[in-house]
Amino acid sequence: MSGFVEKPEPVQVPGLVHLHTGKVRELYQNEAGDLVMVASDRMSAFDWVLPTEIPDKGRILTQLSLWWFDRLADLVPSHVLSTELPPGAPADWAGRTLVCKSLRMVPVECVARGYLTGSGLAEYRTSRTVCGLALPEGLVDGSELPAPIFTPATKAAVGEHDENVSYEEVAHQVGAETAAQLRQVTLAVYGRARDIARERGIILADTKFEFGYDGDTLILADEVLTPDSSRFWPADQWEPGRPQPSFDKQFVRNWLTSPASGWDRASEQPPPPLPSEVVEGTRAKYVEAYERLTGVSWS
């Protein structure tokens, strides 16, 4: 059992129809048929959406995504139409709202990995493979892979695990041509982003993308290359053979799995509220990732 500890009531705005509450985002549709995505400050961990928010998180995710969309536009267009607030929207939506094309979404999480960690490491330890792809012997937690790999997953509902699947399964699900395009674009975008991040002292260990189609055109959707969807490691602290320091929700995960939280992950009980020092530490990591990548001070 997992999901929302406390599921929020969506804000109602004249002219917008609320479609969906996700882990982080509220999704609306305007009268023109475009989607309006609002990134909240909600935090998720271990398939739970926690009761404590991280101040500024939604704005950081939105502004960082926009920064990346600009730098990837020659590889794949994004779904963003506008950043203007819809009429009647609350002031708090400023900086966290995107008006986007309504796309025919591909039901696949497109994951690129350049380093071995997380669920990829767990599979490798069992079978020397990740998503069915054979890898060399001798890799450890944090090892750089010989070349980046495309390791797709099925997109799960809130509270459910994304499941890693083979490329062949994706081809069966969406067709060989679409699968090949997803793999090519995913690895191209990862390669561009990895190089940009590396110049700024950050290792992009892995990341996930979502794509949809506007007619026959593949479009990059949702968010992109944020601490929510990516593992960012400080390059000067990279040391294979152990978990790496990271610019993401690791503060939250570490506290939840520590004796201090008093929470048993294996139980069906929801996680407790986060203490202020964990909230502040997590916010600081999101801000640092934004500032190091963009070179712009967060205010």
TrEMBL record:
GO cellular component: cytoplasm
InterPro entries associated with the record: SAICAR_synt/ADE2_N, SAICAR_synth, SAICAR_synthetase_CS
CDD domains in UniProt: SAICAR_synt_Sc (cd01414)
Ranges for domain SAICAR synthetase/ADE2 N-terminal: 19-269
PROSITE patterns assigned to the protein according to its UniProt record, in alphabetical order: SAICAR_SYNTHETASE_1, SAICAR_SYNTHETASE_2
Keywords of the record: ATP-binding, Ligase, Nucleotide-binding, Purine biosynthesis
Pfam families given in the database record: SAICAR_synt (PF01259)
EC number: 6.3.2.6
Pathways involved: Purine metabolism; IMP biosynthesis via de novo pathway; 5-amino-1-(5-phospho-D-ribosyl)imidazole-4-carboxamide from 5-amino-1-(5-phospho-D-ribosyl)imidazole-4-carboxylate: step 1/2
Keyword Flavoprotein annotated: no
Xref: SUPFAM superfamilies: SAICAR synthase-like (SSF56104)
UniProt catalytic activity: 5-amino-1-(5-phospho-D-ribosyl)imidazole-4-carboxylate + L-aspartate + ATP = (2S)-2-[5-amino-1-(5-phospho-beta-D-ribosyl)imidazole-4-carboxamido]succinate + ADP + phosphate + 2 H(+)
Alphabetical list of PANTHER family matching this protein: PHOSPHORIBOSYLAMINOIMIDAZOLE-SUCCINOCARBOXAMIDE SYNTHASE
Family per similarity comment: Belongs to the SAICAR synthetase family.
Annotated protein name in UniProt: Phosphoribosylaminoimidazole-succinocarboxamide synthase
Lineage, highest ranks first: Bacteria, Bacillati, Actinomycetota, Actinomycetes, Kitasatosporales
